[in-house]
Predict the structure.
Amino acid sequence: MVEKSGEKLYLVEHFFSIQGEGKYAGVPSVFLRFGGCNLRCPGFGSYELEEKKIYGCDTLRAVYSNLYRRSWHSVADISELERIVRKYENRISYLPDIVITGGEPMIYADNSLFCSMLELLAERGHRITIETNATIAPPLKRYEIYKEITFAMAVKLSCSGEQKNRRVVPKAIEAIATMTKNSFFKFTLDRELVQKDGAKQIAEICEGYDNEIYCMPLGGSEEELRKNAPAVAKFCISHGYRYSDRLHVRLWNREEKR
């Protein structure tokens, strides 16, 4: 697991699809998935890999560099990332959204190449969303570009299996929620958390902020999504939150690069 990136920047994959979650669900987007994460989230499921049981989210390839080292590509310069985005743009007649995801892309928050990429994409007019667990505050004084970016703050709840002091970092949440552009909360819940104290956990995290709150069902597969979605939808109706489905799972199940 990568916790601090230094000046190394690892790209795991890139693809063109639709945003499946949150505020911009359904919007055609170029996804840049970077490697490394500062959380494990063992509560999100288990997977059999190379005769080992691995726990975590459904993007293990962006977390476990030792198991997916062939997928981890060290980016040499900004032109490489620009070529990737232009490749997708050349197929269409409009400017797509850019989604920066992981892993946890904010482990590269101080990386000069990463920030140069954000600046270039913003200058070209792309709407940029960074999908983050909101445990790492953007260095706003050094890189003002972060103020122009939308953050999907996927703060982890207890169903993630992470300890609270690791998954909820108030100073990072405050910086993102109050000083960036159109940022929103995006929580993942299962049926059990809905029945327990999911509402209390969300209220504590979001207290004092007026950012939009989206709740989506835990589900890395279509089967798991069907199991949790009805309870989460009812939960949103009860508490006035916005329901977010996982469109990419509905459409393509476990297919990668979707």
